[in-house]
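dumping this here so i dont lose it
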């Protein structure tokens, strides 16, 4: 579908209420940054299994004014040197930094919607009900959290309402006192004390000095565009950058059949795993070298299975603990974020006075959470061109990459891309998981290449938004790839 006039923007989130509120922010004249900040705080109330005040991650931003693509990094950092440290709650300060640079509406207006949801409740979405059903056992060690979300030992079902009064009070203080109160004010003292009561050490000085970082994106340059990736952890960030960059550089995706593309993805993820775990800098030069190895037809090195298992998992199952979202406005400002708690409900321990879950210093490995976002912009013209996201566990990297590559490189019409069957390489068991629509000839060809092949009902979610000639532009020609596998929503808005 083309958007031709009066374009307001587009938003995507894996939880529908957050997407609705972000759409409202855009239509009311807010920027893509306003929409992204709205989604983050809304998700802290509607999807606390994966997002919260204590989340870490990164956002990538295409700024049409400076004609740059930059990444805002707030990746996990330990809150102390103690063995029982938790992560620093960097996300609120990161959202403040994003808003300060690119926001247009008052920050308090963006937080208050989440505060109202937490205080008065809203029906549980299918997204949260699914994560609570699948991963709610993580709350078994915390009676207060279990009583809130799993009363009588049973997870709340879709449509149930829950009031999160303590979280509402925390959001109210962030709104009225400013986010600084969490780092050097009264809310910060409560956080330190609450973490200690839960068995986790927080250094007040380290909390006070915790800041996100803006970084110019330079890792991937392709087709005269800069490709910026966001992920919740450093390892996932490097994994997605390396896999995407080497496939783009190889140029092999466009003219291959389905089995060869699935192999190409598996081989790239295998190479990317080794790059992510090493000290190799990810640059256009190192990606070109990796692409040469990829084009030579190498299969993943199964001798490296511990590393492959940690990064790519051993299954194609869904896992809570991280999510992604993006927003684009009419000016060509594009923001994509990937945030997470490191595991479903973080450590599973809540600070009851704040209504927030503490997050582990190291994200759960093997079949742990995963989420990714992508923004593509042209720094010569200052135009936005594409945003994409993937979420749902280790497999999310595959869903995002296939969505992007099928459209941009394979030149498949963007709204046809989600219907194409996907695959995911679970490197820990050298198995390619495929969706039911995958042709038998593709399965056979993968087995001939030495892979195990197994069925998966779905391979995560992958959504994208593309403006072929860029934004801003007088005649806007844009399209969307809305994934029917998603439990969230994708909106694009335009008027006369």
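and the seq i came up w/
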């Amino acid at each position: 579908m083309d958007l031709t006039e009066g374009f307001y923007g587009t938003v995507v989130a894996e939880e529908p209420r957050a997407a609705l509120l972000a759409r409202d922010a855009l239509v009311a004249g807010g920027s893509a940054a306003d929409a992204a900040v709205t989604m983050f705080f809304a998700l802290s109330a509607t999807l606390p299994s994966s997002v919260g005040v204590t989340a870490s991650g990164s956002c990538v931003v295409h700024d049409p004014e400076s004609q740059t693509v930059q990444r805002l990094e707030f990746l996990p950092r330990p809150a102390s040197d103690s063995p029982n440290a938790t992560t620093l709650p960097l996300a609120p300060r990161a959202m403040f930094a994003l808003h300060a640079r690119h926001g247009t509406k008052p920050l308090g207006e963006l937080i208050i919607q989440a505060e109202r949801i937490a205080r008065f409740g809203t029906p549980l979405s299918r997204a949260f009900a699914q994560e609570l059903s699948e991963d709610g056992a993580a709350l078994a060690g915390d009676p207060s959290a279990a009583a809130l979300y799993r009363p009588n030992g049973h997870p709340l079902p879709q449509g149930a309402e829950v009031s999160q009064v303590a979280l509402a009070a925390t959001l109210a203080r962030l709104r009225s006192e400013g986010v600084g109160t969490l780092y050097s004010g009264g809310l910060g003292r409560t956080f330190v004390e609450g973490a200690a009561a839960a068995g986790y050490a927080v250094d007040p000085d380290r909390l006070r000095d915790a800041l996100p970082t803006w970084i110019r994106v330079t890792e991937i340059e392709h087709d005269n565009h800069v490709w910026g990736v966001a992920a919740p952890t450093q390892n996932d960030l490097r994994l997605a950058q390396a896999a995407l960059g080497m496939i783009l550089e190889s140029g092999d995706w466009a003219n291959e059949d389905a089995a060869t593309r699935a192999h190409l993805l598996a081989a790239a993820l295998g190479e990317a795993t080794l790059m992510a775990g090493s000290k190799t800098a990810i640059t256009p030069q190192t990606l070109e070298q990796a692409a040469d190895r990829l084009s030579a037809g190498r299969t993943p090195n199964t001798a490296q299975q511990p590393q492959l298992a940690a990064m790519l998992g051993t299954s194609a199952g869904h896992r809570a603990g991280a999510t992604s979202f993006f927003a684009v406005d009419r000016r060509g400002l594009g923001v994509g974020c990937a945030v997470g708690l490191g595991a479903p409900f973080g450590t599973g321990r809540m600070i009851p006075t704040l209504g927030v879950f503490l997050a582990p210093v190291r994200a759960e490995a093997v079949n742990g959470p995963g989420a990714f976002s992508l923004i593509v912009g042209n720094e010569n013209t200052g135009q936005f061109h594409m945003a994409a996201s993937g979420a749902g566990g280790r497999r999310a990297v595959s869903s995002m990459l296939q969505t992007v590559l099928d459209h941009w490189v394979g030149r498949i019409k963007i709204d046809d891309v989600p219907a194409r069957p996907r695959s995911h390489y679970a490197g820990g068991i050298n198995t390619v998981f495929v969706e039911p629509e995958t042709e038998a000839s593709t399965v056979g060809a993968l087995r001939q290449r030495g892979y195990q092949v197994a069925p998966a009902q779905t391979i995560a979610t992958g959504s994208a938004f593309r403006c072929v000639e860029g934004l801003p532009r007088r005649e806007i020609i844009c399209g969307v790839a809305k994934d029917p596998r998603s439990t969230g929503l994708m909106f694009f808005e335009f008027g006369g």
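The chain has two domains: 9-51+76-212+342-360, 216-318+374-494.
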